Amino acid sequence: MKPVVPFISHDGENERGAWQTALPKALGAIADVKPFKDLTEAERSNAKVAIVANPDPAEVAALPNLAWVQSLWAGVERLAADLPEDGPLIVRLTDPQMAETMSEAVLAWTLYLHRDMPRYGLQQRRKIWQEHLLKTPQERTVGVLGIGKLGSASVRRLKANNFNVLGWSRSRKVLDGIQCRHGQEGMTAVLQQSDILVILTPLTAETRGLLGQAELNSCKPGAALINFARGPIVDTIALLDALDNGPLSHAVLDVFDEEPLPHSSPLWEHEKVTVLPHISAPTITSTATEIVVQNIGGYFETGTIPQSVDRKRGY
Questions:
Q1: In CATH, what number does 98-275 get?
Q2: Residue 136: is it exposed, middle or buried by C-beta count within 10 angstroms (0-12/13-18/19+)?
Q3: What is the pTM of this model?
């Protein structure tokens, strides 16, 4: 008899429906994947692994013998905060396609800023016909805060498109052909030199509020910011001040303190802000499902749990 693997999700209806179709089909030879609401009491008690995407912690807690959960997201800070420290291990989704998807988004929105598209969009709305000087990519420095798997793929793609790239991480890292900085002193140097600043750090206790008023005020005059990481890494009030009073010229925001972004937020109508609905690196169902099959199949075959999240570090 095949084991039952609960699926727990409070994602949007479309996303949840896609997973509920793809996962049972892909895992059919290994396990029966069932939505939480369809589980019997015995199935809840016997479950050793669950697949989760924005789950209700109470539903996870109702599976008392879980050894681990397979997240369908790369970011697991909310899951780590919601589940007890002595609860099931958390395995984040590590999909190589996600790094490529993110690097594509980083390049696309870097080009958006590099080619002055926000300025030309504003001029169109005001019926202004005016050309501005175009720099070459080599004359434009892009700083990337966070050079893990997503960040390293992004700096390589930026470099391949001839941008001058700086990378930053909390501890020392080396990437071929990339100028890397680390620590507080290194971050200050990257902020001061970057024409475009890309944020890709995970959200942890150490990175929450990483960019506040002091850090944003130390940015290069006229610099633009792209946040594709998590909203709380940037202080929103300090960001608005830096946009209104300098030094920042524009911000592309895909992540926010609260999502969906409330209608009352001043970010919606700010002429120096581009709002995106968390679409920079969505999980690709087809490739992510392959990773889930490998992880869960390996567990039921050998008992091996994939590398799990360090709860102290938050990732």
A1: 3.40.50.720
A2: exposed
A3: 0.89
